[in-house]
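Lab notes, practical 5.
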Amino acid sequence: MPMRIGFIGVGNLGAHLAGSLLRGGFPVTVHDLNREAAAGLLESGAAWATSPEEVAAQSDTVITCLPSPGAVAAAVCGPHGILDGLRPGGTWIDMSTNDPHELQRLAALAAEREVDCLESPVTGGVHRAAAGQITVLVGGDKEVFEKHLPVFEAMGGQVFYIGPLGKASVIKVITNMLAFIHLVAAGEALMLAKRGGIDLHLAFDVIKASSGNSFVHETESQVILSGSYNINFTMDLARKDLYFAHQLGREFGVPLELAGLVEQIFARARATYGGDAWSPMVVKLLEDAVGTELRAPGFPEELAPE
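Output from the prediction step:
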């Protein structure tokens, strides 16, 4: 019998991950503060639960994919939380981008209930999650990881076991930090091309074929050039991840000068456009400052699944 999976948090990312589990043949029970977010999953065969506790009571393994450490803690150990419903021998997997220290605290509470814990943040963009090809990073006990490998493979393309609990969160924060740096750099590069009289279609293709290319340019530059800025990832989430990066920099004694500058730029963008604005709108600060839009017809409004 397939492992019964509970999934808490079916927003822009979580809905795609849970959908991949359903397509992989896993029985899935879902919960979200916004039931409407689960409508498509329920139509596809997922069951609904009214609380994290109810999800856990119907599951062997419960996954959280939530926007903040506070939201994760509330789902795990708050009233009617996961630990109230998950039986001894069950597993909790956090797929959020979380604070490694908070994760360790919650894992210790889970251990007291004889519940295993894995962390499994993902990277590569919501469009890859929609195709079941997102990269999955896993930390925790290796035997528990191996037991759940079919679950991770159902949701992602490449699956990396990083090491003990907390290590996957570190590398996830690093990848996001790089993505935000690349995003600001791509915007500046495109603006130089535009103001220098280079066709933006041509500029996009040349950068993509050059030593200056990046995954962020190949993907997020497209939604900047279309004017939608839509990658289903908000300014608030970007600020959270950059904060985590600076926490790690202080903890490990690494000066993060570029990340510090980019965090300030994102702070201005959030103040200007709001925390719910898509993160590529950070480039709009530059567009507004120089009075030039980066637009080229034919680029997508939203990235298609790969």
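Observations recorded by the TA: The chain has a mean pLDDT of 96. Strands lie at 5-8, 28-31, 47-48, 61-64, 91-94, 116-119, 122-123, 134-140, 156-163.
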